[in-house]
Amino acid sequence: MTESSSDLARIAAALERLAPPPSASADPAAHPAYVWRDGALAAARAFAPLPLALLTGIDAQKAAVLENTRRLASGHAAHDVLLWGSRGMGKSALVKSVVGALRDEGADLALIEVAGDRIGTLPALFDAIANVPRAFAIFIDDLGFEDAGGADPRVLRSLLEGGAEARPANARLHVTSNRRHIVARAMEEQQSAINPRDVVDDRLALADRFGLNLGFHNCDQDTYLSMVGAYADRHGLALDAADALLWAQQRGSRSGRIAWQYAVELAGRAGKSLGGD
């Protein structure tokens, strides 16, 4: 070996020592929830979803997602799910709570959370779980594509269409988004398009591939108060409706998230802990 090749070999060996070893993947049959990270499954440190009964004001959405995910857990035909709409109305909490509720019923079902910027790695995830004898809810939270022409929307569309790398029968996507159509619709693009209808149709095409497509909307005053009341009853907190409404008014919104934050405030004032909820 020449001196130069010897130097190269030493450099290569040093780089190998510096490079982190590949992440070891957690057993896909052993845990209730995972995070898909760096091409491997990592067991979630804590999976303590809210009880379904505490998610109020979204009864129709709750029933639909529960029934669809129960079918998935039972090995029956099930839809991919898109939950879209107002922030803080329980979209993400619902996915987790449904998985928790079905596990409490005895279903062998797990949640796998995937970051929205890791859409391109989903085929590798599907390979890792395709032959595992349990069901998986693939959870992608707060998804929104700014560029309809980018790679990720096309990858997701292909996965949903049932192509060569489509999700296996034991997995279905559960996606939340603040947008109904996931991909932003730029007005200037529509105005400059030769056929504006084609632009709209292209943007609708991705959302239309979810068999279960459910909207979430800002709640009215009564629904907000019922949300706060459910948390207060569960944790033995004294509820002042006027104070609860003032809390929401100061934040410019009434939603499940604001109701939960008010419950946290009540518990703090009372010197109580909300525990795992």
UniProtKB/TrEMBL annotation:
Entry keyword annotation includes Flavoprotein: no
Coiled coil (UniProt feature): none
Keywords of the record: ATP-binding, Nucleotide-binding
Xref: InterPro entries: DUF815, P-loop_NTPase
MF GO annotations: ATP binding
Protein name, per record: ATP-binding protein
Lineage, highest ranks first: Bacteria, Pseudomonadati, Pseudomonadota, Alphaproteobacteria, Sphingomonadales
